[in-house]
Amino acid sequence: MHQPAIPHLHDQDPDIAGLVEAEARRQYEKIRLIASENYVSPAVLEATGSVLTNKYSEGYAGRRYYEGQQNVDPIELLAIERAKALFGVEHANVQPYSGSPANLAVYMAFLDPGDKVMGLSLPMGGHLTHGWSVSATGKWFTPVRYDVRADTGRVDMDQVRDLALKERPKLIWCGGTAIPRTIDFPAFAEIAREAGAVLAADIAHIAGLIAGGAHPSPAGHAEVISTTTHKTLRGPRGAMLMSTAEHAKAIDKAVFPGLQGGPHDHTTAAIAVALKEAAQPDFAGYARQIVANARALADALLERGYDLVSGGTDNHLILIDLTNKGVAGKPAAQALDRAGIELNYNAVPFDPRKPFDPSGLRLGTSSITTRGLTEQQMPQVAAWIDDVVQATAKDDEAVLARIADQVRELLAAYPMPGWAPTP
Ligand SMILES: *Cc1c(COP(=O)(O)O)cnc(C)c1O
Predict the structure, then answer these.
(1) What angle do CA 137, 140, 143 make, to 5 degrees?
(2) Whose CA is nearest to atom 10 of ligand 1?
(3) Which of 64, 237, 304, 408 is flagged as catalytic?
(4) Can you tell me the distance from the alpha carbon of 186 to that of 176, in angstroms, rounded to the nearest whole number?
(5) If you placed Cys at 176, which of 126, 197, 240, 376 could pair as Cys (CB 3.0 to 4.6 Å)?
(6) pTM greater than the 0.90 cutoff
(7) Is residue 130 lining ligand 1, measured as CB closer than 6 Å?
(8) Catalytic residue among 46, 58, 184, 375
(9) How far is CA 375 from CA 8, 348, 365, 386, in A?
């Protein structure tokens, strides 16, 4: 059952309540390896489900366009102060609805339509909002794209520098959605300085690792830092923009009134709670364990002959190129899901296959680390992944149900925050 319980939902809308419980059970029974997901704490769930959802608060603390902000103002100020302390930044805005709107606010703050923006190309691990063609950011601005090197699978910093000096973009993004290696913030900062560009670090995936000291911080290097709050940081669905004091006004004006109306105060409260959790000493242990688990899982996969982009991982994320296994990413991901192992198919750098049916799988260890799995279980997880990939090649459906049972059995020993099976 849910913790906190949802009795009113069960009474008033059994259809939705039933589906919510089914989703909770699904999350309980599966090895969740989607790199952008996590399990939030019951405290974050409670804040997210609170009466703050009833409130409207356009504006900023002390300068609102609606009355009745006696409690919302201190909540937002607490979230801001906690963000500043945790990430060591001069300014934080906790109002962006999610990562994509947060990134759009960065454009709004620094660029005019048509201006040049530089980012890691999407199929190389970048994000849509860093100027990819189908995104508003690629349509309304002029994108310049850098790549990873074919030989190392790592961002090609020589190319970044050459392109930046040749194209002179106004904004340079570093960070992305499928980068298994440490991002060199000082190197990006030096290039941006030389090129006269604003450097924005998008740490959506690695914010929790940075907060826990398991990845270097962009603070002091990037003028602007954008992050979601729901990935490794383990908070509610939301986002934050952080910056130097110099850019505080531009960022705030871009978020509101530039792009958004009222902030989601229930989310703001839950962000504050998550930031407090991330500032506790045990969160550093959590961040370290995420990386230790990813390394152990990567090692076990390498031992089984898997081709990992960049040859391994420094963070929570692993990108597998399945080409040498004779299986495409999508059928493998679907078979893994049926076997109780949830992840996503993903393009790999220089992927010869189409984006909707690419060659790779993307995995992350933040959720299983929250459940309490350690390096000890990673060889078993790799063995199951390997069995399913081989079964996919042979069209052997029977293996999948057997593994799903074994996965359920293993996970029963690792409690899930927010839900437990009824005894
Ligand atoms: C997840 C992600 C985003 C977007 O976040 P949403 O909340 O899904 O809009 C932006 N940038 C990067 C690098 C991400 O990984």
Answers:
(1) 60
(2) 99
(3) 237
(4) 17
(5) 126
(6) yes
(7) no
(8) 58
(9) 40, 26, 11, 17
Expressed in angstroms and rounded, the spacing between residue 320 Cα and the centre of ligand 1 is: 21
Render 190-259 in DSSP notation, one character per residue: HHHHHHT-EEEEE-TTTHHHHHTTSS---TTT-SEEEEESSSTT---S-EEEEE-GGGHHHHHHIIIIII
- The atom of ligand 1 lying closest to the CA of 205 is 15
Choose one of 106, 177, 227 to mutate for the ligand 1 pocket test, by most ligand atoms within 8 angstroms of C-beta: 177
Query: What radius of gyration do the chain's Cα atoms show?
Result: 22
Active site residue 97: no
Of 367, 344, 351, give the one whose Cα is nearest residue 309. 351
Phi first, then psi, for residue 364 (nearest 5°) are -145, 155
Residue 14 makes CB contacts below 8 A (sequence gap 6+) with none
For residue 323, give every residue at least 6 positions away whose Cβ sits within 8 Å of its Cβ, in sequence order, or none: 307, 348, 359
Compute, in angstroms, the gap from residue 371 CA to the centroid of ligand 1. 23
Tell me the per-residue pLDDT of 231-284, one tens digit each, with 9 for 90 and over.
999 999 999 999 999 999 999 999 999 999 999 999 999 999 999 999 999 999
Element (H, E) at 318: strand 317-321
Distance 229 CA to ligand 1 centre (A): 10
* Cβ atoms of residues 234 and 41 within 8 Å: yes
- What would the pLDDT profile of 305-356 be if each residue is shown by its tens digit? 999 999 999 999 999 999 999 999 999 999 999 999 999 999 999 999 998 8
